[in-house]
Amino acid sequence: MKRASNVKHWAGTVCASLLAGAVFAIDLQEGLDAAVAVLYALVIVLGARWSGRRSVWFWTGLCAVLAVASYLWVHGERPDLSSTLRLVFALVAIGISAALSWSRQLLLEVQKELRETEQAQRIIVDSVPQVLWGTLPDGTCDFLNARYTEMTGLDVGEAIREQSWTEAIHPDDREEMARLFSVARETGDEFRASARVRRRDGSYRWVTSVGRPIRSPQTGQISRWFGGLFDVDDEFRAQEKIHELNETLERLVAERTAELDETRWRFRSLYDSPNIFVAEQNWSEAGIVLQKLKADGVTDLRGHLLKHHDLLQACIDGVRTVDVNDAIWRKLGFDSKLDLVAKAPREGVVDPVAALLPQLEALYEGRDYVTGTTTLIRADGGRMPVIFAVNLLADGTAYATLFDITEREKAHELMVAAQQELARASRIATVGALSISIAHELNQPITSMSVDIDMAGRILAKEAPMSDATARIVERLKRNVHRLASIVQRTRDQIANRRRAFECVDIAALAEETRLTLEREIIARRAVVKVRVKEMLPSVSADRVALQQVLVNLIVNALDAVTAAPEDRRTVEVKLDRDNEGSVQVTVTDTGPGIRDEDIPRIFEPFFTTKKGGIGMGLQICRTTVEELGGELRAFNQLKGGAAFQFSLPPAVTEGAETPSSDTDAVGDLAAQLLDEVPERPEA
Questions:
Q1: pLDDT tens digits along 285-307
Q2: Which of 56-60, 244-248, 366-370, 590-594 has the lowest mean pLDDT?
Q3: CATH number at residue 514
Q4: How does pLDDT run across 388-425, given as a tens digit for each residue?
Q5: Is-contact 302 354, C-beta < 8 A?
Q6: 283 found inside a domain
């Protein structure tokens, strides 16, 4: 390129020199009436075209000298106005050409500098590690640096020409970026947006595009927008990670806060409960005495303290009440919390030794939890039974939680009374059933005696006249037999005429109530009774007392059966379900040895029993009661072992229906049914 420039320079110099010589030669001709010297302007143009600004001065001076020289040569002796004007015109033309050439050379140098500056700027712009962009005021992109191609693999020229530069932006981010750029153009504020840009390898990285408007100094209008893309992927990833960590932290904090709130709420609800009492006690003084005893080698603390009452009293006196909740002092009838706190714990219980000695043993043995029951003394001297649970800490602090069981004790007393009443009713029922059975057994002999006496009287009257004494004896026997039959008949009539109003009974609730009623028997036998209800069951129409007595007898029999099994297998289940006909089906099963096959047909017979000391009337009474309620009681052995007693009762149709039922002892109807089977006494 430099060589071509030199060739042009020398070619221009030669051409300018030849033209200058030709113009000078022509201008020397006399008699030529033309401004030939004007052509020196072309010499300046040719000589300075491919040279620098210095050549302009050279060729200008040369042309001016040649023009003056030719003028002096031709017209120096006889100058005239015409030739002088031509010289002046030629010099003006030379000056104008020189000025134009100088300006042109200056412009070329400026353009060269601009090109060099632009090239240098392009190099700098392309060397920037970020993508730089420029747009027109309407958002049309007209500039992208080479970094765009390096990053995206797309051609810069094609991207600008087809305005396809947005193809590198993630499809999900294009609309938002375009919207933000549109808002920035409308408001004239700085443009800033983040998006994912596809790289040459196909991966996406987060970038932030920042652009600023360029305003015209004259009008103040936006003439262009320039900006750049800055790789913030690592920052975004870090922010996402930080965001995830913050979310995790917030979640953990929320969970822990919720747990603390829940714990606080639980503690607050426990502390403020009107029926749960909380007391904080200090056992440190008692702990000092216990530590001394442990150092002395005492192993049986209870026996040692009971033998040495002074040590026991010192331990009890060493217990101090630190704080109590409001519920306990209000419930005990004190005027303030301080009145109760100032009172020694041994003064607040009926039996301080029984209440505090287990806690002393737990503290001595290093146990941190102990429970028990005791009776607190109210401010007015009354009694309040409570269950207590004490948490013992290593520093001698104890937190006692007490629960008022006054109502439970009352309910227990009622339950015991109900059990006693049920037992009494059962005994009465047994006696009544036994009486009815005896009456049933006597009815046939009495009837036979009556017939025999009548027959004997007729025979004696036919064979020979009876004496008065014989007639009186026969008549007396007849009256006594009739009297005995009347007694049996009157007993039957009295029992059969008793009726009880049936009611709608929730048999599932009744079964659970029965289980709770028999709680002591269950605990005594170390067994478990489960009530299983498979679905919502309808109520049945029955005598509640009689039906409960049936459940009591069946469950007690099952409990007696499982006593022979290991303790971990002593289970009785009361299953309630519907049978195929829609009736409520009750099945009482046990894990005992079951019923012998030869005993199953006789299991409901009166006076038949498989239990030692039994009288054999319980199952007979249960069966009769179930039949009167519209069901049937049956017994069978389970495949997995154990016996099962099952009966079904139809669901209640109407409530309050009057139906014959059992008396208080649940045996009257049984007796009536037995007597119904006895044939009527024949008339004499």
A1: 888 888 888 888 888 888 888 78
A2: 56-60
A3: 3.30.565.10
A4: 888 888 777 888 888 777 777 776 666 666 665 565 55
A5: no
A6: yes
Q: Provide the pLDDT for residue 589.
A: 94
C-alpha 595/C-alpha 645 separation (Å) is 11
- Check whether residue 396 and residue 422 sit in a common domain: no
Whether 482 and 533 share a structural domain:
no
Token pair listed for 342: 């100032």
In this structure, how many other beta carbons lie within 10 angstroms of the beta carbon of residue 457?
Answer: 18
Per-residue pLDDT band for 311 (boundaries 50, 70, 90) equals confident
- For 227, the enclosing helix (H) or strand (E) is strand 222-231
Give dist(CA 232, CA 204) in Å, integer: 12
Q: Tell me, yes or no, whether 671 lies in a domain.
A: no
Task: Indicate whether 630 and 554 sit together in one domain.
Answer: yes
Are 481 and 365 within one domain? Answer: no
pLDDT band at 576 (very low <50, low <70, confident <90, very high): very high
* Contact by Cβ (8 Å): 642, 674: no
Tell me, what's the pLDDT at 269? 62
Same domain, 440 and 566: no
Q: Which of 621, 619, 626 is nearest to 666 (CA)?
A: 621
Domain limit, last residue, from 360, 382, 404: 404
Q: What is the pLDDT of residue 555?
A: 92
- The answer to the question of residue 631 being in a domain is yes
How is 66-117 classified by DSSP, letter by letter? HHHHHHHHHHSSS--HHHHHHHHHHHHHHHHHHHHHHHHHHHHHHHHHHHHH
How long a stretch of residues is the chain? 684
Query: Could you tell me if 379 and 427 lie in one domain?
Result: no
Same domain, 109 and 155: no
Which residue is it, tokens 């008065």?
468
pLDDT of residue 683: 37
- Backbone dihedral angles phi then psi of residue 424, each to the nearest 5 degrees: -60, -45
Q: Are 332 and 340 in contact (CB under 8 A)?
A: yes
Determine the structural domain holding residue 163 and report its residue range: 129-231
- Residues 194, 325 share a domain: no
Total domains, the chain: 5
**What's 203's domain CATH number?**
3.30.450.20
- Residues 228 and 134: their CA atoms lie apart, in Å, by 8
- Report H helices in 218-308: 233-272, 284-295, 301-307
pLDDT digits 0-9 by tens, 267-281: 656 666 666 788 888
Residue at 242 is within a domain: no
Distance between CA atoms of 74 and 657, rounded to whole angstroms?
162
The enclosing H or E element of 551 equals helix 544-562
Q: Is the pLDDT of residue 26 over 50?
A: yes
Angle at 659 between CA 654 and CA 661, to 5 degrees: 130
Residue 77: its pLDDT value, please?
67
The structure tokens listed for 426 are: 């059962």
CB 339 within 8 A of CB 327: no
Q: Please indicate, yes or no, whether the overall pTM of this predicted structure exceeds 0.85.
A: no
d(C-alpha 134, C-alpha 125), whole Å: 12
Please say which residue of 465, 498, 531 terminates a domain.
Answer: 498
Going across the sheet that includes 276-282, the strands are 320-324, 276-282, 397-404, 383-392, 369-377
Query: Measured between alpha carbons, how far is residue 347 from residues 302, 350, 378, 503, 570 in Å?
Result: 21, 8, 10, 52, 44
Strand order in the sheet with 222-231: 141-144, 131-135, 222-231, 204-215, 191-198
